[in-house]
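User: My collaborator sent over this chain with a note saying "see what the structure looks like." That's all I know about it. Can you take a look?
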Amino acid sequence: QHKFFDGFHGRYLKDKNEKFTLKTLLTGRKSFFNGYINMQKMAVIEKARLKFAKNIIGRTGWDRRITRVLAPESSYFTGNELLRNGFYEKQWDNAFQNGKIILFTTSADNYYKGFETICHATSLLNNIGLKVEWRVAGVAENSLINKITKKQLGENYPHTGLVLVGLLDEAALIEHLQQSHVYIMASHIENSPNNLCEAMILGMPCIATFAGGTSSMLEDGKEGVLIQDGDPWSMAGAIVELIHNPSKAVQLGLKARERALIRHNKETIVNQLVGTYSTIITGINAD
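Assistant: Without extra context I'll predict from the sequence alone. Here is the result:
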């Protein structure tokens, strides 16, 4: 709730998508207002439940810190996530040389994923003569987030360089990632974003916002670049830095892949989870 409005003023919450879709029929969501109200309700429930939690499994420093406040008497365990199979089988190899620069982001038709930052950063790159093609998955031309971003940014909405590819399946997503030069995660709210982890395990150079638990996923300056969320100038500048130093970009990607392969190792994760359950069960039996 504290970060929900980092990207947009609240007046856009009730903007509605003019196009009637199956999604709006099933979810009843024609604006972002319902999502905001539902998040408020879930936050109340989560706080109440956590008070009674004795054991918690998390993945990031953010998880651990938050639970020390909301469930101070609980035991904390680390449990990393498995990724989709295809991402273990492929590796990125598309260092920038000359020609078109392809950037990629997996996002959503969502209020706090930083889509407005992406659009503004694209305009800034256009303004300095850097020709980019910034592909955004999960957002289409008729998405509500695109509609309100155009309203908010006005002249700063990019007239060129932004390519909204909509929803992609696993194979198409991997193909787009392998064609791209840099992966960017722009969210205002995150914890352990799968999209960033997927780009890392492929070995891509990554730029991510310092939001929630992302600093536990990627070490700034060693495995990628972390920037302040909501800052299109810093985002554009980080992209320029990597494009002008392709060898550094490649090295960041290799280190990111090395970290991700350890973190998302299937056997390690299974053993980790079994060990956690065994510890909890042993403690219960001892009582």
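A starting point for your reply to your collaborator: The radius of gyration is 20 Å.
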